[in-house]
Design brief:
Bound molecules: 1,3-dihydroxyacetonephosphate
Distance between the termini: 20 Å
Largest sheet: 8 strands, parallel
Oligomer: single chain
Structural class: alpha/beta
Low-confidence stretches: none
Helix content: 25-40%
Shape: globular
């Protein structure tokens, strides 16, 4: 069985509830009109934009960018599983580099989130990626670093998707070269038999070249996905 390509948009701290709804309506219409059936589309809005999209959403898997490993409780400023259940959200990003670096999420905390949300069967996009100083030390050091981020999670978990996002390529306009991506994804596939998405300055002009790489199973896109027309264009290009 050939896995479907996965294209995911991470809104990060962009879009309100109102603009998220407008975006998702346009995206659904686009997928219907183009009869796109061989790509799974995922969108990760900020949690304040969660809503009941059931009245129109037929095509898009809506996920959470982050949540605490609890159903509910005293965790000021955070959300729990109950808040995801209210909107039938069963997908979550775990280990994004912005969570790791800006919010100081440790691997221990990430492991707890992984254990908790996997115990409920969530689809988990688990993000890994090396900083520039590791990349500059070469491929073996890079793979060691990535393996270290993988070693404490259950790599056999059935709803696991990996996103390889080199930190130096996120939001910088510096995409990894096709050779870099090919090499890292090929090495990762020897370690883990799961879909592996690439993320980091993906845009319309490089999306097809990246998804054409053998061991790339999809894309996790930030900046270039926030405008609905740009995101539709990328889906269109990858679908060709
Ligand atoms: P950019 O596409 O803005 O580089 O962000 C990538 C990313 O972090 C997606 O999760």
């Amino acid at each position: 069985v050939v896995n479907k390509m996965i294209i995911a948009s991470n809104f990060k701290t962009n879009h309100t509830r109102k603009s998220t709804r407008e975006y998702l309506i346009k995206l659904n219409n686009f997928i219907s009109e183009k009869s796109i059936s061989n790509i799974d589309i995922m969108v990760f809005p900020p949690s304040v934009a969660f809503d009941n999209f059931k009245d129109f959403n037929k095509h898009i898997d809506i996920g959470a960018q982050n949540a605490y490993h609890t159903i509910r409780g005293s965790f000021t400023g955070d959300i729990g599983k109950e808040h995801l259940d209210e909107f039938n959200i069963n997908s979550i990003l775990i280990g994004h580099s912005e969570r790791r670096t800006i919010f100081n999420e440790t691997q221990d905390l990430i492991d707890l989130k992984f254990k908790f949300y996997s115990s409920y069967g969530f689809k988990i996009i688990y993000c890994i990626g090396e900083p520039l100083e590791i990349k500059e030390q070469g491929i073996e050091k890079t793979i060691d670093y990535l393996e270290n981020q993988l070693k404490s999670i259950d790599l056999d978990y059935k709803n696991l998707i990996i996103a390889y996002e080199p930190i130096w390529a996120i939001g910088t306009g510096k995409t990894a070269t096709l050779n870099d991506i090919d090499e890292v994804h090929t090495r990762l596939k020897n370690i883990i038999d799961k879909p592996i998405l690439y993320g980091g300055s993906v845009k319309a002009c490089n999306s097809k070249d990246i998804t054409d790489i053998k061991n790339v199973d999809g894309l996790l896109i930030g900046t270039a996905s926030w405008n609905i027309d740009d995101f539709c264009r990328i889906i269109d290009i990858v679908n060709l």
